[in-house]
Amino acid sequence: MGESGQDQLFPGEEDCREMIEHVLERIKEHLLIQETVGRVREHLQGTRTLVVLHNASGYKWDETAKALRDLGCSSMAVVVTTKYMQRANEFCYGTEPIIYSSIEYYRETALQLTNRHVNDDEKYSAEIYHEILEKCRVDEFCIKMFIHALFANPMRSREELDKLSNSLVFEGSVETNGYKMIKFSYNDLPREYKTCLLYLAIFHKDEKINRTRLIGRWVAEGLITRQDWPSSVSQAEHCFEVLADLWLLCPCDVGTAGKVKSITLHPLVYNFITKMARKEHILDTRLSWHLARHFSVLSNIRLRPSDSIFNFLKQPSRASSQLNLVKVLDLEGCASLRDNQRWLRNVCTSLILLKYLSLRNTDVTQLPKEINMLQQLEVLDIRHTPMNACATKLLMLLKLKRLLAGHTGTGGGDASTLSTVQMPHKVRKMMDLEVLSHVQASKHHATELREIGQLWQLRVLGVIIYDWKAQLENLLQGISDLNECLRSLSIEIKPPPSRQAATPPDVPAAGAISAHCKNTPKLLECLSISGVTVYEHLLPLFARGCRKLAEVTLHNTSLDHNDMESLADLPNLRGLRLQHVNLHTEGKLIIQTNGFQNLKYLVVEGGGITDINFELGEAPKLENITWLIDGIVSLSGINNLPKLKEMVFNDGVRLPDQVIQAIEAHPNFIDTNGIWELC
Fold first, then answer.
1. pLDDT in tens, 126-163
2. Which residues touch 154 (CB under 8 Å, ≥6 apart)?
3. Domain ranges, ordered by start, for the chain
4. CB–CB of 612/581 below 8 Å?
5. Which segments constitute the Disease resistance R13L4/SHOC-2-like LRR domain (predicted)?
6. What's domain 191-269's architecture?
7. 3 state SS of 410
8. Is 630 exposed, middle or buried (0-12, 13-18, 19+ CB in 10 A)?
C-alpha cells in the first residue's frame, strides 16, 4: 500500500522533469509579460492613449479593464471591435454599440425595401433578415443575391423567409449557401423565365454575352412567344431585366442611361444552371458542350466531340437529317470564313427555315446571293466584320426583323470611325423591319432614306450619310414619317468625298432643312449624333420635340449655347456622353442653373473639355461623372451635386490640386488610407 501511494505521489523521473520545465516556462512567460507591462507603463505614464482591441470575442471586460488600468495612463479610450452583437452589448454596459457593419447595412436596406416600419412584423423582419445575412456573412455575392431578391419581390411571406433561413448554414461554404440563395430566386421565376435562364448554359463559362444577341436568340428559339414579334421582344426584354434585378445575370457593360448592354454569369450561377439545364433537358446531350452555343437547343445536330463547327458548315446534311429543326446558327467569333465562302452558301441552301444567323466578329467579307433563300430569317447580325459595302445592296428578306451591321475602327487622332454596308436597295419592301442599324446611304440622293418612312414597325435606326443636302433632306423626311414608332436614332455625318467637297455647298436659309422633319419622333428615347453638317444643327431639332429622350451621345461634333440649352431642357435625360466634342466656350463645360434635372450619368471622353463647372441647382440627381482626358485643368461646383457617388478618371492621370481639393470638399467624400472616393 505504502509503495503504491508513494508511486502516485512521486511520478517517474521523466514526468517530473517535464513538469518542472513546464512550470519554468510559465514563470518565464509571466516575467516576460511583467517586463513588457513595465515598459509599456513607463512609455504611457501620464499620456492620453487610444487602445484598439480587434475581434474581441475571447475577452471579458472586467479582466480587460483591470489590465488596462494597471498601465497607469492619465486618460484612455478603448475601441473594441467584434462581429457579434451580443459581445458588443456586453462591452457597452447598457449603452448602444456603434454599428459599422455590412451586415447591419444590408439589414437596414432589407427593411427599407420591404417597407417594414413600426408595425407588428417589424421585430420579426429585423431578426429574420439579420439571421439570413449572418449565415451568408462569408460570401458577399450571397448577401447581394438576397437583397436583390427582396428588391425584385419585397412581399415575401414569413414562411418563405423561414424556409430560406432554415436551409442556410451559419458560416457555411460559399457553394452550399450560394446554391440555396440562387434556388430561392430561381423558384420565384415564371416557367418561361426559368427556361430563358437555363438556356444560358449553352455559353462558355465567363463568356461576355451581348444583350441584343441573347434576346434575339430567346425569341428566335421560341422560348418567349406572344401574339407578334414586337410583343415577344418586349417580354424578352422584361425577362432580361428581371434576371438582372435578381443578380442571376451580372451586368458587364452599362450604357450612359443605366441600361445593361452585356452580362456575364457568376461561377455559382453558371454551375447551378448547367446542372438544372441537364435535369430539365434544356440541352441536347448528343451535342458536345463546346458546339452547343452555335445551334438551336434540341436541334438534333450530331457532331463528335472532336468535330468543329467547320465540319458542320462543310456538309450540314451529314450532321442531321432534320435540318428544318435548326432555327439558330450563331457563328460569332469564328475565323476562316473569308476564304470559304461556299460554307455560307451551304448554310443558305440547307437551313432554309433558319430564323437567326449571326456572323458577328468573323472575317466574312461578302454575303452569298443565296442569302435571299432564307425567307424565314428574322435576325441577321453582321456587326464587326470587314464586310464589303455592297454586300447587302441586293438583300431582300421579307420576314427580317433585325439587320445589325457596322464595324468600328480607328480614325484620325483618338476618334473612332464607323464603316458599314449599304442600305438594301429595296428596303421599303421589308415591312417587318424593327431594327436597321448601322447602314450607309448608297448614292447621292439616296431615295431609300426617304423610303424608310414606310417601315412603320421600325424602332431602331442607325444610318451613315454624307454631308449632302439631298441625303439630309431625304433622311429627315423618312424620320418624320416614323414619328409614331422610332425609339432609337443614330446619325453619323461624313464629310463629302474630296471631289465633291471642292465645290462650296449651297447652304439654304436657316430652318429650310429642318422643315423636312415636320414631325419629330414622339417616342424617341436614345439619340446619337456623330459629325457636323454645314446646313443646320440637328441636336436642337430632335431635342425640341422628343420629350422622352433619356440618353444622348454626341461624337466628333460641336456644341454651342443653343445645343446646351436644348439638352438642359430635356425632362427625362438620364445619360449624356460627350466624345471628342468641341465647345463654343473654349474647353469649359458650364452646366447652368435649373437644367438637367434628371441627369444621372455624365461621360466626357477625349476632345478639349478641360474644365467643368456646375452651377447651383443644376443636375441635382447626378450620380456619376466619367472624365476620360489627360489634360484636366479645373473642376468647380461639385458641392452643388448632392447625389454624386462616383468620379472616374483615366488610369494614371495627374489631377491638379484644385480638382483634388474640390473632390475632398464634397460631403460624400470618404478618405480611406489616403485613397479618396465618393460614396
1. 778 878 888 887 778 888 888 888 888 888 888 888 99
2. 113, 114, 115
3. 17-92, 102-186, 191-269, 550-679
4. no
5. 319-648
6. Orthogonal Bundle (1.10)
7. strand
8. exposed
